[in-house]
Amino acid sequence: MIEPRPNDPKDPTDRKKSKHPNDPKGPKDPQGFQGLSTELTARVPQLLEAMRSVGTGLELHSTLDRICETAAELADARYAAIGVVDEEGGGLSDFVTHGVPDEIARAIGRRPDGHAGLLGALIHHPEAMRLADLTADPRAAGFPAGHPLMRTFLGVPIRVQGEIFGNLYLTEKRDGAEFTDDDLHMVRVLATEAGIAIGNARLYEAARQRERWIDGSVAVTTALLSGGDADEALSVVAEQARRLADASAGVVLLPAADGSGGLEIVAVSADDPSTALGVVIPPESPVVERLLAGEPVFVADAATDPRMITGLARLYGPSMMLPLHSGGRVLGALATPRAPGARQFTEMERTLATQFASQAALALIMAEAQRDRERLAVYEDRDRIARDLHDLVIQRLFATGMMLESAQRKNLAPAVQDGVERAVDELDVTIQEIRTAVFALQQGPAEVPSGLRTRVLREINMAAVPLGFTPAHRFAGPVDTVVDELTGKNLVAALREALSNAFRHAHAQRIEVVVDATATLPDGSAGVRLTVADDGVGLPEGGRRSGLRNLARRAESLGGSSRCGPGIGEDGGGTTLVWEAPLRAPSRGRP
After folding, report:
1. C-beta of residue 77 within 8 angstroms of C-beta of residue 174
2. Cα(512)–Cα(507) distance, rounded to whole angstroms?
3. Which of 26, 135, 247, 523 could form a disulfide with 336 if both were Cys (CB 3.0 to 4.6 A apart)?
């Protein structure tokens, strides 16, 4: 190792270096390595190795872990930590430690928030601090139960691009010694390098965050415009929002179906979605008022915020609630709550989530317009079918009936007359049934009753067009009165998926649909059971199961289940789908 030569007054280069340590023509030395003690000079290689180690890698949290470990080794400290200052500058948003065993960290519980004590003093006065006994300092706030004993203390601020990022803390220098001026000098240099490494890691993390949110927006747009089930597309929005925001739940809210002016939870991605699905947030909630006005709502702690008036709020901590608005129209809201005590959402996360919500709202509007066009095409096709039935089929049947009646008046054998009479009666019945079908085809959506029985029949009749036959159907129990709106909505979606599978994949020639509102579920509770059986080819080996998983997820979100078995074809050929859910009170109250 070549030791630095003391400044020689005859050497103009050395005089220039000592006078201008930051001269761009000379080596960079922001902390002033010249004039260091022999002991400190001997530690320069260790410092350089520490700086090299700190600058390795780009992931932010691993960079903070590495800084803590490197600083502890450099200053020969037992414990090290980095407190990341929150965006308001009044506390800590993250606290990374080194040297504290996991079991002790769990026993201590909640990490410091930096609002008091020495940590708070360093936040409000970001200057280097060295103490022989931190417990004797009047600013010390004490330790929680189970915390390791700490006396010697060294703290230095970490700046990123001139702004305070956080503070580096070192405690308990080994062998009971105190931290020296040389330790302070070395840690200051390391903190400068740490600021550069953290800055690079933050830029990298921001780029990765943007990329993830963009990918999530693309996934949502694709799901909404794929022409699939609208409820399934909303579930994709909830799932993507939860994943991207690193939240405990993703929740989509739309205007309540009861017309109360509140917001109803229509899609949930969470560990237990059934507790939230269908909950209505009343219009008197201050949060609803702001969301419907197109304003985002950010909550530091949902459990204690007075604006959160539902029972669900007590389960969560930091929360983002964003309006789904596009083109001046508010479609609903998107919420991404985190667990109690979790870190707050950063400004970057808030911005990206707001952009994601706007993109999701635009995709919702486009999907709605696409469905309107598809419905219009269906209605136009129904009108054409109704006209053809009326103008062609009924007229021909009527003419055939007239011919048979004319033949009946001739001298025919009694048996022949009886047969002709029965044929005429059958033609009359057929004409009446066709006229009823024509009337149903000509009804608008607002004219169709909203009962579950009618919606099931509508799905069966719509499926009859591509199938080429009408599936047989049967109802058991008062399905219109005992099945609540949410369960009925999911049952109809399950029926639609099952009929679609029977047409597209099973190539069935016979389908039987049963809706039983008197069913008893495996746990003994009362429920409603949908059974769709066909004589098709059955489930292929290794085929896609996304549709069946969707059906199962719908049932599970309501506390039910879904399963498949043999069909009604010869020797058990085909598939039988059983979808069931418990009965709930049809009238839903507010939480």
Report:
1. yes
2. 14
3. 247
